[in-house]
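Appendix C: a fully annotated inverse folding record. The material below is reproduced so that readers can follow the format used throughout the book. The structure is listed first as tokens, followed by the designed sequence.
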């Protein structure tokens, strides 16, 4: 089937749900989310077998949590017909679909990216066609097939969701030229292609999430949160914590607490260098190490780890472009850097973000609100996650960020939005403006 035929089928499916009310729309979302939740384990198994990336246990949780959290965030939110009235302003807002959405998805998230984007697309009565990464095409196709079956089970058209079964760069580019809007999740080359397609596009930027441990925060809690934030799915999630920047005088305590949380702390310069050469041979990320378990990385570097290590934590002396471990690492390796004062810590984080990952996210372990504001003003990030694993930058029941699989990075990351992608980004809104009593604003020059 050609891309043009797929788009035509998507438009026909949209016509079939044009008269759906809010309940019918939300029933589609409920049915699809529940179906993926129930198939979370086999989908996780398929993803690990196909991609050889990440952790089976974490992928199960990722599939379940995204099915639950994204649906919960969309449930009962207005997206059909009149979505808001503001009588005092004489305004009525009416939602319209954006059209056929093209979703280009990565090998790192072959289930949750099509799930999350699909839920948000159908929330606005759009259709969506997915172009998966070739390395994860089976998992993504299975995900879409489950969602299509769920739609059919309640009488909704299957072709609201479609997938390119044999993806290629050429077909992805053709898709982007034929749809009405694009959500591109992947590397900078993919995002640039989406932006040059001639259609509106939402892209994402790379992550290089820096986290700072403030003087006033419990070291044991920070160590636990850091291991969670770095180990998740073996580090392939863009919001995974990349560095822990800690007070120099607390180094021994930081290292001890990391060890208690199954982090293998490596401070010997020779061992650190061997790990560096394995993770970044010739200064470039090693594709054979991406998403692998810590023991596989350590064995390749001839470094011994304690049994059961969840991550490798390497002590570094340099910062920014002088240290490769300050870049984004899609492996369960955490950079450890000490600081003398808080302003220096923030400077280190900023330097690393300017090297890579500007616009994405950062973490701070602190109870000092002034420091929170200081970091929020100083760092070029769209999200600053306080006292949580940084993976919660993608939205969590424990914070106010809407759950999403696409994290906008603003102009810092060459993106149009500096927030988590939400269903409102995938609808058009008509505003009916009625006459109201003129406001007496006085002279603006007084």
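Designed amino acids, in order:
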């Amino acid at each position: 089937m050609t891309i043009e035929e797929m788009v035509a089928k998507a438009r026909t499916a949209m016509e079939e749900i044009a008269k759906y009310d809010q309940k019918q729309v939300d029933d589609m979302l409920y049915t699809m989310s529940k179906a993926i939740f129930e198939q979370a384990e086999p989908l996780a198994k398929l993803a690990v077998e196909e991609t050889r990336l990440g952790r089976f246990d974490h992928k199960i949780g990722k599939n379940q949590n995204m099915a639950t959290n994204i649906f919960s965030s969309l449930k009962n939110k207005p997206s059909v017909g009149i979505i808001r009235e503001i009588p005092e302003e004489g305004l009525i807002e009416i939602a319209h679909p954006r059209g056929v959405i093209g979703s280009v998805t990565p090998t790192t998230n072959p289930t949750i990216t099509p799930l999350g984007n699909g839920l948000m697309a159908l929330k606005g009565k759009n259709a969506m066609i997915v172009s998966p990464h070739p390395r994860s095409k089976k998992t993504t196709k299975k995900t879409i097939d489950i969602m299509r079956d769920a739609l059919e089970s309640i009488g909704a058209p299957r072709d609201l969701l479609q997938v390119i079964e044999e993806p290629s760069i050429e077909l992805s580019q053709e898709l982007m030229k034929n749809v009405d809007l694009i959500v591109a999740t992947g590397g900078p080359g993919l995002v640039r292609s989406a932006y040059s397609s001639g259609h509106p596009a939402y892209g994402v930027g790379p992550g290089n999430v820096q986290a700072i441990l403030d003087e006033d925060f419990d070291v044991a809690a920070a160590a636990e949160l850091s291991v969670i934030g770095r180990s998740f799915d073996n580090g392939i999630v863009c919001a995974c914590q990349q560095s822990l920047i800690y007070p120099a005088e607390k180094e021994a305590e930081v290292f001890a607490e990391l060890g208690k949380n199954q982090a293998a702390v490596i401070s010997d310069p020779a061992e650190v260098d061997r790990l560096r050469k394995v993770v970044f041979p010739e200064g470039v990320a090693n594709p054979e190490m991406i998403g692998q378990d810590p023991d596989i990385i350590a064995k390749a570097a001839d470094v011994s780890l304690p049994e059961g290590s969840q991550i490798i934590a390497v002590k570094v002396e340099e910062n920014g472009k002088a240290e490769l471990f300050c870049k984004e690492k899609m492996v369960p390796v955490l950079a450890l850097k000490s600081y003398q004062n808080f302003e220096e810590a923030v400077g280190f984080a900023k330097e690393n973000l300017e090297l890579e990952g500007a616009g994405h996210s950062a973490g701070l372990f602190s109870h000092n609100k002034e420091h929170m504001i200081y970091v929020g003003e100083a760092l070029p990030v769209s999200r600053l996650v306080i006292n949580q694993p940084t993976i919660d930058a993608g939205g969590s029941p424990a914070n106010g960020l809407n759950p999403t699989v696409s994290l906008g990075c603003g102009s810092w990351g060459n993106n149009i939005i500096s927030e988590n992608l939400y269903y409102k980004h995938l609808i058009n809104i008509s505003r009916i403006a009625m006459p109201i009593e003129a406001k007496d604003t006085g002279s603006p020059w007084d």
